[in-house]
Design brief:
The chain folds into 2 domains: 124 residues, Diaminopimelate Epimerase, Chain A, domain 1; 137 residues, Diaminopimelate Epimerase, Chain A, domain 1 (Roll), CATH 3.10.310. Helices cover 16% and strands 47% of the residues. The protein has an 18-stranded mixed beta sheet that branches. Strand 11, helix 3 and strand 12 form a beta-alpha-beta unit.
Amino acid sequence: MQNKIAFYKMVASGNDFVVVDNRRQIIKDATAFARRICRPHVGAVADGLLLFEASKKAHFKMRIVNSDGSEAAACGNGFRCIALYAHEILKYSSSMRFESGSGIIEGHVGPKGTVKVQLIKPRIFETDSVIEVRGNRLHYSFLDTGVPHAVIFVEGLPKVEVVEIGKAIRHHAHFQPFGTNVNFVEVKSKKEIAVRTYERGVEDETLACGTGSMASAVMSVLKGYAASPVSVQTKGGESLRIEIIKKGPEIEAVFLEGKAQFVYKGEYFL
């Protein structure tokens, strides 16, 4: 019999992940394994791999490896999936603290697959700058919500060339050497925004991005376009709730809430 690894396929707001219990370090080369299991046709097909590992600082540790093999510090939708996995499959308490590349994340699993996580406080680098891309001057903001995000406010979001423009911005010299995720945001009302995201590491538009939704909501609130809590409509059609706690002009805390779910359980043969 071939060696095999048990996994769960999970999804949150259209972001899909392969989740593996790696407390015994069964996966030695996470980069190679992510590239293999996330591939279309020959793998489980996913945006990324979530590894559940032991931690001395919190209840557990989560690592996220993108489908291209690069490791990310944070993933809001991944955080929600791993929290649900910990509670439903591994029987952890509904309230938990876990280690990530961006710091300690607090999560709470509610009824019917609803998961709320407190993300790290965003670091604001640029609130209104201009970049030239493909012959056009674009106004953008730049911040870190665990991973870097450029936020661009637009009108007519469905018509935006997210992949072409997003890829050009992601690789722009201004954001090197690490590049950036790119979010295109349309304000619908004081309580609702719509977001489409080009994700670094996936190198394509995804159906949703938790840290990108957070970045978009934060900049919408800071610019006065929206007020907390903000409903974020994703490309996948689901709605995320972003709650932003402010103390004067400073952001004290940000919470991301939405549903996560299991798709199937499988075994991957090596």
